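Journal club prep — side note

Before the paper discussion, L.F. wants everyone to see what a predicted structure for a comparable chain looks like in token form. Sequence:
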Amino acid sequence: MGYVYLSFAIIAEVIGTNLLKASTQFTQLWPSVGVVVFYAISFYLLSLAFRTLSVGVAYAIWSGLGIVFVTLLAAFVFKQIPDLAAVLGMALIVIGVAVIYLFSNTAGH
């Protein structure tokens, strides 16, 4: 169940982060409210994931995949297309998350 909570925590964090951009430094009411709501949901779900997943592993996956998904969503929504260096860096992050998930004894699977 920990990975289910973690998955939804990542989704909420990605939405919250993109709403942070849309809030225009908290000058737009509804995107600003969305930031607070989605970050609160994300942190709550992340705390539930900690019941069965180690903090280091869960946080590495949450932050790593969050970076990749925030960038992908921002590319579509805000037309912020990453350059080659950014894509390569994010590929390394995904590889790192895969190594943790597949080979770490602390991954909880």
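L.F.'s comment for the group: The chain has one domain: 2-103. Keep this in mind when we get to the figures.
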